[in-house]
Amino acid sequence: MSSPRLAFGTVLSVAMLMLSFSALAESLLDANSASADEMAALPHMDADLAGAVISNRPYATIGALHELLGADLDDDQLTELYAHLFVPVNLNTADESHIMLIPGVGKRMAHEFEEYRPYASLEEFRREIGKYVDEQEVSRLEQYVTLD
Questions:
Q1: Which of 1, 15, 38, 54 is the most exposed place for a label (fewest CB within 10 A)?
Q2: Is residue 73 part of a domain?
Q3: 64: three-class secondary structure by DSSP
């Protein structure tokens, strides 16, 4: 029979390990800087496709990456991949089709992104988009956007 202290320690260790994997899974790689090894480890990617991504850099927009990957991957595969690999969307210049490539963003949310332009800061983005989604979702969306 194990002691309660040992059981608690085991549960705590497992919880910390799960949090570590969760944090890693939620980190978003930029297609303009990710290594071939990092990309090849992602869903629906292999060494050849990662090499093609690297050889076609830089990507000015997510649309350019989408065009390259769309030749090999279907829409569901692209959606899953974009949860891990992306080219940041410029909040002030991106068109609706590029905004909608952000996983989970539909026409309504894309409209909200566009409605509050021009954004002077990411804080302004957080405040305006935070009217429609919770703080956790704003943080997730913020990974996909830039003002550059």
A1: 1
A2: no
A3: helix
